[in-house]
Design goal:
The structure is a single chain. By secondary structure, the protein is α+β, with helices and mostly antiparallel strands. It contains three helices and three strands; from the N terminus they run H-H-H-E-E-E. It has a three-stranded antiparallel beta sheet with strand order 1-2-3, with no helix packed on it. Strand 1 and strand 2 form a beta hairpin. Helix 2 runs antiparallel to helix 3. It is globular.
């Protein structure tokens, strides 16, 4: 069994309880979920690097609603380590990085080589 501990569940619950009256669930497009599931089912996402564009458009853009004009692709963090696939910036200040994992990845916490 793989345990996903990307988010601290206790902290997430505290945040949800604190801000539940301010959280707005917006579902303008349910097609990204079906689109991604279909691609997974059809094994069209197996080549990680070739599917970065799909991840960017379907997951980051359509599903999560991030402003894709804030996106920098394969940003090199310099002395911080290897490049990451996606870095979001506002006014040259990074506010989020996304490391993509291949469809065969079982352990999301495993360190990269």
């Amino acid at each position: 069994m793989v345990v996903n501990n990307i988010f601290n569940q206790k902290k997430m619950n505290e945040y949800i309880n604190k801000y539940s009256d301010k959280i707005i669930i917006n579902q303008p497009d349910m097609n990204p979920v079906n689109d991604w599931i279909n691609r997974l089912s059809n094994n069209t996402l197996e080549k990680e690097k070739q599917n970065y564009i799909n991840f960017k458009d379907i997951i980051l853009g359509r599903l999560l609603g991030y402003e894709l004009e804030d996106l920098e692709f394969e940003h090199d963090p310099g002395s911080e380590g290897k490049p990451v696939e996606f870095t979001f910036k506002k006014k040259d200040k990074e506010y989020m990085v996304v490391e993509a994992k291949g469809t065969k990845t079982k352990d999301l916490n495993k360190k990269l080589n």
